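User: My advisor, Dr. K., asked me to get a structural model of this assembly before our group meeting. I'm new to this, so sorry if the format is off. These are the inputs:
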Amino acid sequence: MESTNTTTMIHADKIIKSYYVGTPNELEILHGISLDIHEGEFVSIVGASGSGKSTFMNILGLLDRPTSGTYLLNGSDIGKTKDKALSGIRNHQIGFVFQTYNLIARTNAIRNVEMPMLYAGVKGKERRDRAIELLKMVGMEERMHHTPDELSGGQKQRVAIARAMANDPSIILADEPTGALDSHTGRMVMDLFHKLHEEQHKTIILITHSGELAAETPRIVTIRDGSIVDERRNQAC
Amino acid sequence: MLIENSKLALASLAANKMRAFLTMLGIIIGIAAVIAIMTVGNSLQQSVKASMASMGVNNISAGFSMLNYDEDSSSSEITPLVQPQVLKDMVSTYSSEIQTISVQSSVGSGSVRSGNKTAKVSVSGVSAGYFVAERTSLSGGTFFTPHMYEKGSNVAIVSDRFAKSIFGNNLSKALGKEFEVNVDSNYTTYTIVGIYTYKTDNYSFDGSSGKSTSTPVYIPLKSAQLQVHNTDISDFTVVAKDSVDTTALASEMQTYLNAHNPTYANYQIECYSMQSMIKQSTDMSKNTTNAMTLIAALALLVGGIGVMNIMTVSITERTREIGTRKALGAPNEQILLQFITEAIIICLIGGLIGIGLGIVMGNIASRVMGYPASISLSSIAVSMGFSMFIGVFFGFYPANKAAKMNPIEALRYE
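Assistant: The format is fine. Below is the predicted structure of the whole assembly, which you can bring to the meeting.
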């Protein structure tokens, strides 16, 4: 069941994102999106390709700044936060899971999972123990010494989820996490997200174009042409 | 973090071994060239210095130099001379600084015949200071006594080479023996009182090899002056006491002599200290070495540009990785540091190989040129520092480019 906790983790108010600002080619992608996400929620943001969902995710993930509007993360105004501080927030509070995994090719699974902890200043042994623990959690203990080249798509995504969990973030942002996987491995990955949500009460934001996947989440937000067109609670969850 | 960055850099280099090696090659060649040239230069300087020092570091040579060379008038002019009294006064003026004075007067070249054996000799009258200035060491017998100098005795100090050729290998047999020298049909008989060790390895300013066919025979200065009926002194050498600033003394002596000696229209007395000559000579070879090192450093510069080039390529290839690292929380300075560390490690490994290669090359070149190899430790320190500087300098631009990448654009990079 959806968490009953009502603490607002994300407060986005009238977010507008434009490119080529101040030029004749100015292009507005997001037209004033407002959305609140509470701690412990599992929300899917659904939209077709080009709807602006990934742009919105980049703003939520502090990889990009809105052109106008207010974004409060855990009460802090992100618009007034400096880049270096944003790096720290990304490192400690947000875990990213990408469609194309984005693992570092030359290093093995353990070192990939260690990476966010490295930037957080976690010491060697503690970092390694935590990485092994996380890889065990996602069922990758057998292949943790392998490099990404030696792993299947599903295995890579599980390593990426372990990496997203490295610094025990409060939010996990997953951008089409099953997009490059077959249905079987995609299922395994979705099960992992459900597990993280139910057992560890993580706030999970799933960006997808698939209505089927969105139907698994307790709250569904639909974006079309840069605006939220539908927002509903999933009665089945 | 530095250790982690170094590990990351080594892993990245290991992933492209051939490329890393080719990048290092420029640094290797540059550093090796700098070290080799500096080693050869250093060897040459040490060798010249040692050779000149063996001739007496406390020596000051004095003589006349022509102010304006004029072919028409030079032949008709009289030979400039130093007045013996002026010399005496000068020695007493600077007695606290002068150890001794060496004056030489040539009698001429001639031959000595003993049975069927012949030896060519050049006879010179010398003052007692001559043997100090020349650092002459005796193989047998004694130097001249003050009495011999005062009286102008017909005694001689000959070379061991001469003694062996005339009197056989047992040098002691030659002592006390007489020999007759024929110089310009004048026959003079001398008694051998001492035998000096003949040096063949003297560094010579006049270009002579030191292996001349005639060996010098020394007689007391007064003996020579009596024979040639001439007490002229055109040049001399002063041996300064230890710890005296010979360059300053040479300058004072020059001023004194030019002020007190009768003046000659086109000549002036010049005094050179051996130390200033050594300095001049080492300065000259230092300048040559520096010029060549600068050329070698250009190779290092080209190597550095190679590092910058490959780092730029590497960063472009790893754009998505940079985006990922930023998304995972790496601050800009961390990305900057990571890539600068990579550039420094390329340059350091290249530098170390280059130093090894440079030492080997420098040693071989020095030996081929006949100097004892003298590795310049400062050149190693400078090269290591310089290669690290190249890493930082040429790594900074690409690393800064990486650090300033927009994370979204980097993540989307195909």
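One thing worth pointing out at the meeting: Chain B touches chain A through 21 residues (CB under 8 Å).

User: Perfect, thanks a lot.
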